[in-house]
Structure formats: structure tokens, C-alpha cells
From TrEMBL:
Enzyme class at the top of the EC tree: oxidoreductase
Stretch forming the signal peptide: 1-27
Protein's recorded name: Peroxidase
CDD domains: secretory_peroxidase
Residues at which substrate binds: P167
Organism field: Salix dunnii
Classification via InterPro entries: Haem_peroxidase, Haem_peroxidase_sf, Peroxidase_pln, Secretory_peroxidase
Cited PANTHER family: PEROXIDASE (PTHR31517:SF80), PTHR31517
Residue sites binding Ca(2+) 1 per the record: D72, V75, D79, S81, E93
S-S pairs: C40-C119, C73-C78, C125-C323, C204-C231
Gene Ontology cellular-component annotations: extracellular region
Function: Removal of H(2)O(2), oxidation of toxic reductants, biosynthesis and degradation of lignin, suberization, auxin catabolism, response to environmental stresses such as wounding, pathogen attack and oxidative stress. These functions might be dependent on each isozyme/isoform in each plant tissue.
Domain of life: Eukaryota
Length: 329
């Protein structure tokens, strides 16, 4: 008769402790809910208070917080490398052409200072980027959802690889999908994330090629006329504050009008309109256009996936005192 071999109590203990031991020796830990529950209990509350205050004073900050998360997490890691200034010849990611039109970076430090006043050197800039995006989404009429924390801040800027990481607005949808899939964001989630364009606006320099010298045949003629009124020149000044919106019905609400407009051939950027013609993405466009709740569910899931891309945790990186600069030794 076969004899059952039962592990000793000591071997069972080692088995249970193995994940913790590996974490200790690797310096790596996982993101978790309520990471600051002991070290800074009001951290998330303070960030939310600042997000609401800044939104009420400068409404467009909420859109900036969402875009910050995308630009930070697509490049290497969700590690606040986006926020670093150019220092010692290392170019800031903010200087990339992919970052054109981004603003309100100074208000990230407003949030950081509020947190620092209560919990010095405790809450990372990377978590502020993530949580401000989550709370900004609510200010834009989007869904409320929970997000894990425990990210740490990069001590490096990755300006040299930004253009290899962040898709361009004129890239093919297949390239866009592959970029997102490379960081663990699936097709359905990618379609949902592009729904953030519901509250975005685009500078004329990035869209005139679709209306001059001739109108893109995939575009609704009446929408093209609207764009020509917004962007009357085929060669606009890149610095001119001329822009158009994807969603004219609810321009500051994160909702499914974006997808309804796509089905009506009113996509603002080439990448937007391609969502309706690609067989991988078009079914999701139709489902999101038909059901705002479904869009919100998928958008929440997508933002969480994006926010957990390769974070620095444990003893990796640092907690920056000033989000613009690495700590001085």
C-alpha cells in the first residue's frame, strides 16, 4: 500500500514564506489596495481633494491627468518618468513630439506638495499620476473604480524611446494595437482607452491632412465643413491655439458619444476612424456606441491594466520629493 508522505511543519512554513522570501531578496513587491493605509492614511483623500479643487478652478486639468497616465505608463513603466525635467543633457519625455499639447504639469506638484505636507517622502509621484487620473475620470462623468498603489518613482528619463513606445495619431490601427498589447492591454481595452478622446481636443496641425487639399473620403462632409471652420488653413501655426473636438455633443463628459460619432464617420484623427474599419476593433465600437455602461466597464478595466504596466516597487527607484527632479544624494 502506498504511504502518504506529509510535509513537516517546518517545510510547510518554508513553503508559505517562500513568496515573501523571494520578494525580500529581489527587492520587488506587488501593488496593493490601500498601500498607504498605515504610512499615510489620508493620501488618497488628499489627492482627490486636490483633483476636485483644481478641476473647479481649471476644468481642463482632469483631461490632463488622464493623458499623463497614458504617456507615463506607455513608456517603460508607470514610474513618473514623464514628469522629470531635462537635466545634464538627458532630455525630458515632455520634450518629445509625442507630448505636443500636454500641459498642467505644474499642478502635479501642487498635488504633491499637499501630500508632502502631511506625509513627507512617503507617497510617490507615480501613484499621484495614477490616482489623479482615476479621480479626474470621475470629474469627467466617467466611472469610479479602485486602483492599487505602491508604485515608486524612476530615477531616469526615457525621452529617447518615447516615439518608439507611444503611438502617433496617424499610425495604423494594427500598430496601435500592437503597442498596447506589448504592455498587456488587449484589443477590447485598447478600443475603450481610445474613448478618452471623447473629452480630448486636437490641434489643427494634427488633423489638417484629413481635410486639405481634399477631404478624407471616410469623413462625413458636414463634419469636414465644421473642421474647416475650426482650422481654416492647410498650414496652421503649430503654436496657435486652434483646435477641434471629437465630441461636440458632450465635450467634457467621458461617454460613448465618441463611438457614436465614429459610426457616423465623424472621427477626428485617422486612428479614431480606423477603429470602425478594422475587423478586430469594429465590433467593440458598435457595442460601446450602443451601451454607455459597457463602455464605462471596459474603460475602467483598461485604465487599471494600463496603470499596472511594469511598476517599480519594493526598493526599486525612489520616492521623489519634487516630481520634476530626482532626489539629490
Amino acid at each position: 500500500m502506498a504511504r502518504t508522505i506529509r510535509p513537516s511543519s517546518s517545510s510547510t512554513l518554508i513553503f508559505l514564506l517562500l513568496p515573501l522570501l523571494l520578494q525580500f531578496y529581489s527587492g520587488k513587491s506587488e501593488l496593493q489596495f490601500n498601500y498607504y493605509a498605515q504610512s499615510c492614511p489620508r493620501a488618497e483623500e488628499i489627492i482627490k481633494e486636490q483633483v476636485v479643487k483644481l478641476y473647479n478652478k481649471h476644468g481642463n486639468t482632469a483631461v490632463s491627468w488622464v493623458r499623463n497616465l497614458f504617456h507615463d505608463c506607455m513608456v517603460k513603466s508607470c514610474d513618473a518618468s514623464l514628469l522629470l525635467e531635462t537635466v545634464n543633457g538627458i532630455e525630458s519625455e515632455k520634450a518629445s513630439q509625442r507630448s505636443f499639447g500636454m500641459r498642467n504639469f505644474k499642478y502635479v506638484n501642487t498635488i504633491k506638495q499637499a501630500v508632502e505636507s502631511e506625509c513627507p517622502m512617503t507617497v510617490s509621484c507615480a501613484d499621484i499620476v495614477a490616482l489623479s487620473a482615476r479621480d479626474g475620470i470621475v470629474m469627467l462623468g466617467g466611472p469610479r473604480f479602485e486602483m492599487k498603489t505602491g508604485r515608486r518613482d524612476s530615477t531616469e528619463s526615457y525621452g529617447a524611446v518615447v516615439e518608439d513606445s507611444i503611438p502617433n495619431h496617424n499610425d495604423s490601427i494594427s500598430l496601435v494595437l500592437s503597442r498596447f498589447q506589448s504592455i498587456g492591454v488587449d484589443v477590447e481595452a485598447t478600443v475603450a482607452l481610445l474613448g478618452s478622446h471623447s473629452v480630448g481636443r486636437v490641434h489643427c496641425v494634427n488633423l489638417v491632412h484629413r481635410i486639405y487639399p481634399t477631404v478624407d473620403p471616410s469623413m462625413d462632409p458636414d463634419y469636414a465643413e465644421y473642421l474647416k471652420r475650426r482650422c481654416p488653413s492647410s498650414d496652421p501655426d503649430p503654436q496657435a491655439v486652434l483646435y477641434a473636438r471629437n465630441d461636440r455633443e458632450t465635450p467634457m463628459v467621458l461617454d460613448n458619444y465618441y463611438y457614436k460619432n465614429l459610426l457616423g464617420h465623424k472621427g477626428l484623427l485617422m486612428v479614431d476612424q480606423q477603429l470602425t474599419s478594422d475587423p478586430l476593433t469594429s465590433p467593440y465600437v458598435e457595442k460601446m456606441a450602443a451601451d454607455n455602461g459597457y463602455f464605462h466597464d471596459q474603460f475602467s478595466r483598461a485604465v487599471v491594466l494600463l496603470s499596472e504596466n511594469n511598476p517599480l516597487t519594493g526598493d526599486q527607484g525612489e520616492i521623489r520629493k519634487d516630481c520634476r527632479f530626482v532626489n539629490s544624494n
